[in-house]
Design goal:
A: 354 residues; alpha/beta; 8-stranded mixed beta sheet; 3-stranded mixed beta sheet; 14 helices; 13 strands; C: mainly alpha; two-stranded antiparallel sheet; 11 helices; 2 strands
Chain lengths: 354, 339, 310
């Protein structure tokens, strides 16, 4: 058989293979359950909680038969968009969901906070362990007003440490991100000046700072440039064993980031009924100042009973056993009071009337 | 082959029908490609319309990107896109063409052949194909540069290129900061690392296509030049490259397009700063990197603004290609030689 | 060194080389033209070697950072969860193969047949010029935009993420390279061959299939290989279209093209940014596998083309 004959046979076999495998008609309210009896859930959204969600879903699906749950980080904004477009079964966002977006979903959405995290300031200074930064100091650094490491604002809080006469190399995020949103929301809460300019945003117009993409980019920049400081997720810093600055909270205490101080930060905010709360400037004494909830977004009505059942079971798992995974990965477990409220709210997710 | 064509006969009825069908099919497919592009452009422009109406031409001339104040402008990005693409093209074309010439002249095969001759192996059955195989290996190695994912190029740039460049660049900045190209220091990502990595990304395109163009020049043209007493390089520069110019320029156009639109690697390496600066070491921003960094989190109105930036990029690509075509037409008016 | 033709030495009047100093015909570096030629050869050799350094640097980096993860187990296992050891990316490799195959099915025929049309068209043909111009415009298309377009054109229409949507996005990036390279390759076929075929009574189609395309095949293949190499490695178009999945795309002998499909490019993007050592190493190993995969495809393509040429 000559090569042309061989190639055309290969081509036709491929085409037949492809045609015979195409299946699954489009549906509403997300992808349909697979005919083979496997129930699938597809989620997309924020990258902040992605490691924890991935762990939850993998553990759950390994423990149960015929269950496949997938989550891909595409960004909070794209996650919300996917929910509105009904291309996923659930979404996730660090910035909750705006009212105008919620209205775009005809069956309604239910936001459920699933976990929480903290944001830390990592720095690169030789022989300076446990750097303490007062509120004025770190707000000033990110405003571009505190320019050198031996500035009195920083030296005041660190009497025993030798701070170099070096300019501070501020590193910020190049990409639009929920982490930036939470950090700038906090900075706006503690500094009038910051609130006016640049203000809280996914991608603010920073007055100062070299930009790097992603947590890994900021980390690489900070670690390779002496005298740098940047903001990253607590989980990231924990896993990579990066130095974290100790920050002054509203009560005037200097608190290091940890599961306990993070929980204290969350506890200082009352969780309203719509389950959207911001802890922009916690006032409890042991609270770490920069903490945030992160939400999963569900439809209020699902068409497929199997999916709905799986979803409810999954939620129960995440809110109970799942919370135990938080600490190892650097997330903050939900306070028990919040867990009760979230469990109650899961009742709002029900089967669509046929 | 199954079918044979009897020599010198007019086409039969069935052959004519097949011919008509195939030609129409090619026409339809060509039209389909054009329609696809038109459809894509239309969709993007439609998505950009609200933003275009709101921000108008100030979008193209302003320099602030502040979502909180509702101020959006991409002049720094336009500058960055063009600056990095042109730099990458210059470096990439120089090295790419050099590699293409190296491959097409067969230097490596010649050297291996001479080596084999020393050992008297040049005619042996098992060794005689070595020169060609070595050439093929080299060609595949260069094309392998195209296989590296852009994310990996970005990471390589961050972990290898920037640390390597930093001491050199800061030394140059310390000594020669009066020179506009060195007027800032390299604090991390910047124009130079981005352009260098970009030039490596576009190099395989230029090399592969130019090499094909050079090797398809009929051998008798090359022999004619040698016969007239031209040296190897006089032949290359005055005869081969001009004859192959159509293919070489085609490769350069593709490479430039890629350089304008490269997203991932530049998003990690260009520094994403909204500044306009001639300095090679300063960070900058490109339209594609802006899109990559902002799109995942963008909602509602911001998506429209980003689509506006995409329209600007498309317009730049069209403009660059139109100018390029005009230059080629002028230049090749005299070059299309004997074939 | 002076040489004289010994045949004529006994017949000096008939010596056509009388008075010629053969040493002038020798190749000598003292002559500027020769010097220039040798120097340029050296420059070009140096530049080619320099151009190869990045390749070795990248491959070395991949080997150093991910090499230890490379084992057969990695192809048979699914991606690990954070803090989990082991795991692999077999599903992502399958997904990449599926998506690249689909993209080729879409873009290769479209690109080559359009190129045949373009190559056969005359210089002033306005329609052909328009088609060529649109193809050139597409060369600068950012990969993320291809993903965004495919999201609104395919994902929104079909109601979910799919390998087909991913393939559409990747085809958009592959099409201009294939089309423009193929057109140039076909145009470079000497006119004589085409005229000879027509002189024998061949139709344009027969000329195209039996003369032009086979002769231009190496050039066309270069374009296809470049396009595939790029398409296999792009992340941005796949994130909004094929998304990702932690499960096997082909399970129980059944392959669903209309579901979220994993791919090596998205896996690398996901894992490279994680703070977990296992994941990061797998990302590097996946990058290595991707590069090897494209190399193998390249070699297969080249050997098929050579067998055809015989």
């Amino acid at each position: 058989m000559n090569s042309r004959g061989a190639r055309s046979i290969v081509f036709s076999v491929l085409v037949l293979f492809v045609l015979s495998s195409c299946s699954s008609a489009p549906s509403s309210g997300g992808p349909a359950a697979d005919a083979g009896g496997v129930v699938k859930l597809q989620g997309a959204g924020a990258s902040f909680p992605a490691p924890l969600y991935t762990k939850w879903f993998k553990t759950y699906s390994s423990a149960h038969q015929n269950v496949q749950i997938d989550y891909q980080s595409v960004g909070s904004g794209s996650g919300v968009k996917s929910v509105i477009d009904k291309t996923v079964d659930f979404g996730a966002s660090d910035a909750a969901m705006k009212p105008e977006d919620m209205q775009k979903v005809d069956v309604g959405v239910q936001l459920l906070p699933m976990t929480a995290g903290a944001i830390v300031l990592t720095y690169n200074l030789k022989d300076v362990p446990g750097l303490k930064l007062s509120r004025k100091a770190y707000a000033g650094i990110f405003l571009g007003e505190v320019k050198k490491w031996n500035d009195p604002l920083i030296a005041q809080a660190n009497p025993g440490l030798k701070l170099p006469d070096q300019p501070i190399n501020v590193v910020v995020r190049a990409d639009s991100s929920g982490t930036t949103f939470v950090f700038t929301k906090h900075l706006s809460a503690i500094s009038e000046k910051f609130a006016q300019n640049p203000g809280a945003n996914n991608m603010p117009n920073w007055a100062v700072g070299t930009k790097s993409k992603g947590n890994e980019g900021v980390t690489a920049s900070v670690m390779t440039t002496p005298g740098s400081i940047g903001y990253i997720e607590y989980g990231y810093a924990l896993s990579q064993k990066l130095p974290m600055a100790v920050l002054e909270n509203k009560s005037g205490n200097f608190v290091a980031a940890s599961t306990e101080s993070g929980s204290a930060g969350l506890a200082s905010t009352e969780m309203p009924d719509d389950l959207i709360a911001w802890a922009s400037d916690p006032d409890m004494k042991e609270a770490y100042p920069i903490v945030t909830y992160t939400w999963m977004i569900f439809y209020k009505k699902y068409q497929d009973k199997k999916k709905l059942d799986l979803l409810q079971a999954l939620l129960q798992y995440c809110l109970t056993d799942g919370q135990k995974d938080s600490e190892a990965l650097g997330y903050i477990p939900l306070p028990p009071a919040v867990i009760e409220k979230v469990k109650a709210a899961t009742q709002n997710i029900s089967l669509a009337a046929s | 082959m199954a079918e044979t064509i009897e020599i010198a006969q007019p086409p039969s009825r069935s052959q004519q029908t097949v011919d008509w069908f195939f030609r129409k099919l090619c026409l339809v497919f060509a039209g389909l490609s054009a329609v696809l592009v038109a459809f894509i452009v239309l969709k993007i422009v439609t998505a950009a319309m609200p933003a275009m109406k709101q921000y108008g031409l100030e979008f193209l001339t302003g320099t602030t990107w502040d979502p909180n104040k509702d101020q959006f402008a991409v002049l720094p990005e336009i500058w960055g896109t063009l600056y990095t693409a042109v730099l990458a093209l210059i470096v990439g074309s120089a090295f790419g063409l050099a590699a293409a010439i190296f491959l097409s002249e067969g230097y490596l095969a010649e050297t291996v052949f001479r080596l084999l001759r020393i050992f008297d192996l040049d005619a042996s059955p098992s060794w005689s194909r070595l020169p060609d195989q070595v050439e093929l290996l080299l060609k595949n190695l260069i094309e392998l540069l195209a296989a590296i994912p852009s994310v990996v190029y970005g990471l390589w740039g961050l972990f290898v290129v920037i640390p390597m460049l930093r001491p050199v660049c800061n030394w140059m900045h310390d000594r020669m900061s009066w020179f506009p190209l060195f007027s800032t220091d390299l604090s991390g990502p910047g124009v130079l690392p981005a352009s260098l990595v970009l030039s490596i990304m576009i190099l395989p395109t230029i090399t592969a296509i130019s090499r094909d163009a050079l090797t398809s020049v009929p051998p008798k043209i090359r022999m004619a030049a040698y016969g007239m007493g031209a040296t190897r390089w006089e032949t290359i520069l005055a005869v081969l490259v001009p004859t192959a110019s159509r293919g070489i320029i085609g490769g350069i156009i593709l490479a430039f397009g890629r350089a304008l639109g490269e997203t991932m690697a530049l998003a990690m390496l260009v520094g994403n700063a909204n500044v306009i600066n001639l300095s090679l070491f300063s960070p900058a921003n490109t339209l594609a990197a802006l899109l990559a960094n902002n799109f995942p989190e963008a909602r509602g109105k911001e998506i429209g603004v980003l689509m506006y930036a995409a329209v600007v990029l498309l317009a730049i690509t069209m403009l660059v290609n139109a100018i390029g075509s005009m230059i080629i037409q002028r230049a090749s008016a005299g070059m299309e030689g004997a074939k | 060194m002076s040489r004289t033709d010994t045949t004529f030495s006994s017949m000096p009047d008939l010596n056509p080389f009388e008075g010629v100093d053969f040493s002038e015909l020798d190749r000598s570096l003292r002559r500027p033209r020769t010097l220039f030629s040798v120097a340029m050869s050296g420059v070009v050799t140096l530049m080619t070697m320099l151009a190869l350094i990045p390749l070795f640097s990248v491959v070395l980096m991949l080997l150093w950072r991910g090499g230890r993860k490379l084992s057969l187990a990695v192809f048979a296992q699914l991606p690990p969860a954070p803090l989990e050891q082991g795991g692999g990316f077999g599903n992502a490799l399958e997904g990449t193969l599926i998506i690249v195959a689909l993209s080729m099915i879409i873009s290769v025929p479209l690109g080559i047949l359009s190129a045949v049309y373009l190559a056969e068209s005359e210089a002033g043909n306005r329609f052909a010029n328009l088609v060529r111009f649109t193809a050139k415009t597409l060369t600068g298309f950012p990969s993320i935009l291809a993903g965004v377009f495919a999201y609104s054109a395919v994902v929104l229409v079909t109601g979910g993420f799919s390998a087909v949507a991913g393939a559409v996005a990747v085809s958009i990036l592959m099409l201009p390279t294939i089309m423009l390279t193929a057109e140039d390759a076909i145009r470079m076929v000497p006119a004589k061959m085409k005229e000879a075929a027509i002189g024998m009574g061949a139709t344009k189609t027969q000329t195209a299939w039996m003369v032009m395309l086979p002769t231009a095949l190496p050039g066309i293949l270069t374009g296809v290989m470049l396009a595939v190499a790029r398409g296999a490695g792009e992340t941005a178009p796949l994130i909004f279209t094929a998304l990702f999945s932690n499960y096997w795309p082909v399970s129980g002998g059944h392959m669903n093209l209309m579901q979220a499909t994993p791919s090596l490019a998205v896996l690398i993007y996901n894992f490279a940014g994680m703070p977990f050592q296992n994941q990061v190493e797998l990302a590097w190993a996946a990058a290595l596998v991707l590069v090897l995969m494209v190399l193998i495809t390249n070699l297969i393509g080249q050997s098929l083309s050579r067998r055809r040429a015989r």
